[in-house]
Amino acid sequence: MAQDITEDLNIDLSATAGETGFTLDQVAYDVSINNLGFVLKSNSDSPYRRETAQYKKDQFDNSNEPGEQTLTGWWLRSQTSWHHGAGIRYYEPAVDDNNKYKFYDSRGVDVWTQGEIGLLKDSFHLYPTTGTAAGQIVATAASSNGTQCMVIGDSVGALRRVSYNGNLPANTVGGTIYNYSSLATGHTSSNPFVSITTDGTYYYAMCSGAIHRGSIDGTTSADVVIKRDTNFNINNSIIKYTKGYLLASHENGIYSIPNPSTTNSVNHNSGAQLTALNNKVTHPNDKWTWVSIAGGLSHIFAAGKAGGLSEIWKIPFDTGGATIDIDMPQASVVAQLPYSETVNVIESYLSYLVIGTNKGVRVATVNVDGTITYGPLLYSSDYPVTGFVTDGTYVYASTTAPGAIDHAVIVRIDLGAPFEDGTFAYAYDFEYESDEVSAGTGVFMIDDRLVIVTQEGANGELIGQHTTNRRASGWLETGYIRYGTVEPKHFKYLQTTGLIAEGDGIGIKTIDTSGAIYDLLSLDTNTLAQDVKLSKPIGKQEMIALRFTLTNGSPVASYPTLQSYQVKAVPATPRQRLIQYPLSCFDTEMDKNNMVFGYNGRAYETFSRLEELEKSGDFVSVVDYRTGESFDAIIEEIRFISESSADKNSPGVGGTILVTVRKY
After folding, report:
1. What band does 1 get if pLDDT is binned at 50, 70 and 90?
2. Which DSSP string corresponds to 43-73?
């Protein structure tokens, strides 16, 4: 039947062959993609569809042991031990396996028993009773009649022997404080003691004018002066017995003292001068001061400083003669610390040289020839490290802990199990909790118990370690938990295991990305080993850390202990949408207003342009005129279904394009 002249033509007279498209205001398109307009053609076989894009990636577990990466649903983070020490701020288990047993910081808890943390032993005033001793204290470990003790000297010129008196101060009932009698009269603050050492039988005590020797077991006036000088440096002069030699420093020299048991004098006004000795090490800088001496495996090490410069020297042994002797003139520099990092103390132990500075602790490997290779700051602090004592595989370092009130503390370092990067596990250990600011100035091990030498205001003190009583509380803070990604998460539940008795508690705090701390709850016998809701911080977080605070109901009990924790989270990544559009693509089409548009070759041209957009992988602009949506998206997939056949007027390329886009 012929068309009536009043009917619409089936082609758009405004479009001519060869045109590349139609403006969006000419045709009532349903959807446009980068200004390519389309009419939707939905049916049961090619529907318009919206679905949530996959937001979690399936993981293949190729580890030797099954782990939390094999579980689905929750994102989990667990910890079952803390014996690899402090210092990890962010948990990234995939980077370093050592991290899974590390934590960030702690106070008052023992982390060295694998599989648990518990409270450390408490402290008490070993000497004096109430912390009223005048001036500063220097000390050395010694043995008196088989009883381990300390020989202490102070800045008011007194020299004493101190032993543990159970868990009571040494100068109370049952204790013994022996004042070496020759110094009890006539030796005042004009000659403060600056350094003490022992050879096992005698003490050697350096004051500002002389070096004293006396029997540790002596009960009479046995103290004598073996060497003297009118001006020992009261800040840096040292005396040290090591490797069978008695060495003393004065100004920029280190002197080897022969026959130190020989009696020379009984006062500071007569006797041989130390500086008259010839076997010595002389630093070329006359302003140099030596601060520490340590005996190595095949050498003796000495550390000193001037201004902001610090050096470590090795002193060899002369093996060329009939007898082996220390070869002081052949001493040489083996290490120089970074400028402004100044050395305070060194200790040789287990083939390592441990270096305490104004910025923390370094551990150096000692080579066969006496040279050393030191590593980075293992423990870093704004407070100086002032002393070392060793026991088992551990080195204990005296320093000061920062806090609301700064106080003396010990840092324990495990040299027995170095990590692959050459570092070692460390953590804060025995601590003196005081109501006043105190500083750790030394540390000793007596009767298998630590003693901290402290300075609290004008008072020097010895702080002892209790044998039975534990601290009232202590805490441990984990590193930030972020599951190896900065994507936000909803942290939902925490479960802990441990041992807890009536009256004990394990307090839990959460710490958000900004460092804000939130009190959560305190676990008891009813809530331990149960899932507890992490109600704070509110909302999604990139990461959180946890702080566990242990409090005990009885000081003599070994509870509470924390044995493990597990955090459960889900990703809070905004969900993306996959939208499938069934797009009509023919040479000639009709919109919803019955307007016919198109031209020969239009379908192939449109399809090709759409494929180019997909190929680029770039964002495209999508507008859905039906819903009013306008958004950026990535073309995920294009599928073309041809529904036309070629004839004399058309190449037969038309059909339906199924375009799937990912909405961002």
Report:
1. very low
2. -SSS--EEEEPP-S------SSS--GGG--S
Mean pLDDT of all residues in the chain? 87
Name which of 133, 105, 118, 130 is nearest 435 in CA terms.
130
CA-CA distance, 28 to 628, in Å (whole number)? 14
**Check: CATH 3.40.50.11440 for 123-464?**
no
Q: Highest mean pLDDT range out of 89-98, 257-266, 336-345?
A: 336-345
301 in Cβ contact with 353 (< 8 Å): yes
Least confident residue range of 4-18, 354-368, 578-592: 4-18
Radius of gyration of the chain from its Cα atoms, rounded to whole angstroms: 39
Q: Domain spans of the chain?
A: 31-53+577-663, 74-118+478-571, 123-464
Q: Each residue of 390-431: pLDDT tens digit?
A: 999 999 999 999 988 999 999 999 999 899 888 999 999 999
Q: How far is CA 98 from the centre of its chain?
A: 12
Q: Could you say which DSSP state residue 236 is in?
A: T
Residues 219 and 214: their CA atoms lie apart, in Å, by 10
How many CB atoms are located within 10 Å of the residue 185 CB?
8
Residue with tokens 């331990």: 528
Is the pLDDT confidence value at 186 over 70?
no
Are residues 548 and 505 in contact, defined by beta-carbon separation less than 8 angstroms?
no
How far the first Cα of the chain sits from its last, in Å, is 52
For residue 556, which amino acid is it?
Answer: V
Contact 212, 205 (CB under 8 A): yes
Residue in the block written with tokens 């022996």 = 178
- Say how far residue 331 (Cα) sits from the centre of its chain: 37
Q: Token digits for 539?
A: 């909302």
Report residue 47 CA to chain centroid gap: 56
What percent of the residues of the chain are helix, what percent strand, and what percent coil, each to the nearest 5? 5, 45, 50
Secondary structure (H, E, C), 556-619: CCCCCEEEEEEEEEEECCCCCEEEEEEEEECCEEECCCCCEEECCCHHHHHHHHHHHHHHHCCC
In eight-state DSSP terms, residue 135 is B
Q: Phi/psi at 56 (nearest 5 deg)?
A: -120, 135
- In this structure, of 93-97, 161-165, 537-541, the range with the lowest mean pLDDT score is 93-97
Q: Answer whether 0.85 is exceeded by the pTM.
A: no
* Among candidate residues 110, 84, 104, the one with its CA nearest the CA of residue 96: 84
Instruction: Answer for the pair 371, 332: CB distance below 8 angstroms, yes or no.
Output: no
Closest CA to 302 of 332, 259, 322: 332
> Which two structure tokens, joined as six digits, stand for 637?
């997939």
> What secondary structure letter does DSSP report for 83?
T
Residue 496: predicted pLDDT: 95
Q: What is the mean pLDDT of residues 606-613?
A: 93
